[in-house]
Design a protein that fits this description.
With 86 residues, this protein is mostly helical. It has four helices and no strands. The two termini are 47 Å apart. The mean pLDDT is 79.
Length: 86
């Protein structure tokens, strides 16, 4: 009984946890950052694909050869499955 009363007193004295709300807000912000990164990564990949296709077409091939342009490398990650899941 005395242990139970000490536990209740301890719980009552413990301040209300507002960190839970702050943690939830942080999670929402992190999810937003992850989404923006994924969008930017996909735009980069698409742009590189378009560029590489463009410089391989006939009229551009001449200028590419003269000016020494090279195809751009695609975005790669060692563990690509890790970046697809939030």
């Amino acid at each position: 009984s005395s242990a139970l009363s000490r536990l209740l007193v301890t719980v009552e004295r413990y301040p209300e946890l507002k960190s839970n709300a702050a943690f939830q807000e942080l999670r929402v912000q992190l999810e937003g950052c992850e989404n923006r990164i994924a969008i930017a990564r996909n735009r980069y990949i698409k742009t590189v694909q378009e560029y590489n296709t463009y410089i391989r077409q006939f009229p551009q091939m001449v200028w590419v050869w003269i000016l020494g342009y090279k195809p751009k490398a695609q975005y790669t990650v060692a563990d690509e499955a890790a970046i697809t899941t939030p």
